[in-house]
Amino acid sequence: MAMTMSKIKKKAKDLGVEAGTMNKIDLIRKIQCSEGNFPCFGTTNGHCSQPQCCFAEDCLKIVN
Questions:
Q1: pLDDT-derived band of residue 3, with 50, 70 and 90 as boundaries?
Q2: What range defines the domain where residue 51 resides?
Q3: Of 31, 26, 30, which Cα lies nearest the Cα of 11?
């Protein structure tokens, strides 16, 4: 199930990431960086090399 923007903003807040007026993709990429992942949301070619990323499933759905 795709994460809603409110859930993404809550996750950002919990991590100390300032959401401001960022769009969903930019905010997810900033969260990815703060968690030690590559900021690659939405750029995959159908394969994710970071299965530990909490956005991996949503990312693959966008591309496929």
A1: confident
A2: 5-63
A3: 31
| DSSP assigned state of 3 | P
pTM score above 0.85:
yes
CB atoms < 10 A from the CB of 41, how many? 23
User: Nearest to residue 53, comparing CAs of 32, 27, 30, 28?
Assistant: 32
Per-residue pLDDT reduced to its tens digit, 10-39: 999 999 999 999 999 999 999 999 999 999
Residues contacting residue 25 through CB under 8 Å, at least 6 positions apart: 41, 42
56, 50 in Cβ contact below 8 A?
A: yes
Q: What's the structural domain count of the chain?
A: 1
